[in-house]
Specification:
Blueprint (H helix, E strand, L loop, with lengths): L25 H7 L2 H4 L11 H18 L3 E3 L5 H18 L7 E5 L5 H8 L3 E5 L9 H7 L4 E7 L11 H10 L3 E5 L12 H4 L3 E3 L20 E3 L11 E5 L4 E5 L16 H37 L17 E4 L1 H7 L3 H10 L6 E2 L8 E4 L7 H20 L1 H5 L12 H6 L5 H10 L5
Parallel strand pairs: 2-3, 2-4, 4-5, 5-6
Antiparallel strand pairs: 1-7, 6-7, 8-9, 10-12, 11-12
Length: 441
Amino acid sequence: RLSEMNYGVDSGMYPLGSCTMKYNPKINEEIAGHPKVAFIHPYQDERTVQGALQIMWELEQWLKEITGMDRFTLQPAAGANGEFTGVMIIRAYHLDKGETQRNEIIVPDSAHGTNPASAAMAGFKVIEIPSNEQGTVDLEALENAVSERTAGLMLTNPNTLGIFEEDILEIARIVHRAGGLLYYDGANLNGILGKVRPGDMGFDVVHLNLHKTFSTPHGGGGPGAGPVGVKDFLKDYLPVPVVEYDEKKNRYYLNYDLPKSIGKVKEFYGNFAVLVRALTYLKIMGRDGLKAVSEIAVLNANYLTQKLKGTRGYGLPHKELRKHEVVFSAEPMKRETGVKALDVAKRLLDHGSHAPTIYFPLIVNEALMIEPTETVTREDLDHYVEVLKKISEEAYSNPEIVKGAPHNTAVRRVDDVLAAKRPIITWRMYRQLKEKGDIDI
């Protein structure tokens, strides 16, 4: 019973927007748990781990073909770690050219929060530009933002609204003409997988989330992995080591001889078992399977959109047709009943459904960001829409039921402020506070 109180991707639809919480095939775990994978050691001599190096080499070839990049590092441990690696490569490139004035990174207002954070950590000043009425990059604002100080633009495509940036070639032209580089946040690659490549859109640097697009586990089932790919003119700045293949000797080896490298960004060679899982997924799916992933992901997102569209209390800002995810707004519901997006999310738990991402992106008030992924069924989608419609009915007939949710979970609505100010993260801490009478739970 205790295990059933938890919720994971095996339990049902897990529609966190821009998280791509798809089902993780169990064959991935079987391969990653093989003794020859699980018990090798990073200090082993290269001659004894040729199979491991081959896995990393082959994964890089797949990722190059998928993205249109020329080289990859598999070291970064997660998406944000990949972002930081990417912007550090951009920084190293400009410094190597002597363009020390390029200290600005441009991000759209729809960007993931880690984009400006990663840029700031790398020493850049962050310049935010607004979206237009269609929810895409405002070209005039971009033209006004670029200058001799521009190091690059960080962009997700499809963006966080689930909308494809149709002006991407013009965006690339504007940034490159100003001397900047174009950075691709791969968080939403699932929406275009096998259909279009970031490298063909004009991107110079990309990071991918293996725990999103390529079915490796999130969170407690992780860790993650955020490989970074670059065009040929940036390969000398990649973290060391990179995996090389000597055709004459028919052997794989680690190359540390990159004098311009930004250095290491993760101990050893990255989260190897995660890389194994990703390559397993790619080999099983194949090219046609990867195309089907994006096709079904987009179909599912738009099916849900059309089923929920027009339901009282849920607005649909910007374009109607989306890629892999959609952002509804509970602003009308809040205005008319006092029920907020947070309340809707909590009430979903009472129905045994997982909440979507809420209050993100920030450009949508009372945002409900839903990404069903390709691994849910039509029945899953229909059920989720029916629950959201039921919550709408409750909000307008008896809003206090929704405002007080959840009612059926083991833990009721928590005090988020108190949890942040005084986190109880161990049993010992809980017991001590309980004995003092400082908590009443």
